[in-house]
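Researcher: Going back to the complex we discussed earlier. I've cleaned up the inputs and rechecked each line, so this should be the final set. Can you rerun the prediction on the complete assembly and write out the structure?
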Amino acid sequence: MIDKPLGVTVSRYIMDLQQMFPEAKGDLTGLLNELIVAAKTINAEVNKAGLADILGQSGKKNVQGEEVQNLDELTNNTIKKRMESCGYVCAMLSEEDEDIIPVRDGYSGKYTLAFDPLDGSSNIDVNVSIGTIFSIHKRVSSSTETPYCNVPGSQEDFLQPGRKQVAAGYILYGSSTMMVFTTGHGVNGFTLDPSVGEFYLSHKDIKIPKLCKYLSVNEGNHRYWNENMKEYVDYIKDKNISSRYIGSLVADFHRNLISGGIFLYPRDKKDPTKKEGKLRLLYEAAPLAFLIEQAGGVAMNDEGENIMDLIPTKVHQRTPLIIGNKAEVLEATEFLKEHSSLTR
Ligand code: AHG
Ligand code: MN
Ligand code: MN
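Model: Rerun complete. Updated structure for the full complex:
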């Protein structure tokens, strides 16, 4: 963790972070700075979504079988265009694309980038906070024969446990636009001054408060949950805890990170194609698990496994997610285990 004063720009913060590692060549710095440019571009698009006729549905479905919003497509293309020739990534994985996305020939790089270009799509047309989530790994595929700028990335570069992430974060397009990320040295939040186009350090070394203030779960799915999950949610509701559910994972996560809370997206029987729950491991659960762990919390699935230790087998695989205050999340997984005879 480097101790910088509030107000330092995110680019300066990233450069100073790099100074901590004399062996660093600046590729991660470059990658994060390219992402920041993409974030500013998306922020401009999101802020005028209501005017520029980019609301509504594109009429297409994505690999998840979900309706693609125009803004999903626009933000997805913004990030892909920005990153395909930056020279820092060997391939990309997007929620909106079935296969991994190659970068331009000769521009392959040291890292992979997995991202949810726009999280909370159902909230786009109703002007509720949405976000972008990203996860960065070091590539595992390389070649001794040729320089890796000519070696494209492959699926194996993405099928790594969250524990191996190099960096992860999100941009939240809310009452203000914030970039929150970690490189494994704490979690910091930077707020965009749109009149200047700069992100300034506004939340230093974020730690999730000790007290769990909020329960965040879509109770509309209650009837589809396993019995032990129904029992757990009924149990936690007997505590002195408020319920908040925005329906944008990034916004629900950010509120809990700042104020304390537990978020659950359980597996459910509603949709046979989503038996493992709705959220995706590589570009939703794992990056947020890295962040919450760095902020003193934890992320688990409903079988007592730490999200950061799950070994992915498919790039779009889903996982049940329980994330937030450590004590609360561990109690939840303990409760689910003790009541597991009720499962399935
Ligand atoms: P996305 O818009 O990227 O598909 O993600 C939506 C996710 C997540 O943001 C949120 O927590 C969840 O969908 C809400 O799902 P429900 O409406 O089923 O609660
Ligand atoms: Mn999402
Ligand atoms: Mn999305």
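Model: Worth noting: The two ends are 44 Å apart (CA to CA).
Researcher: Good, that matches what I expected from the previous run.
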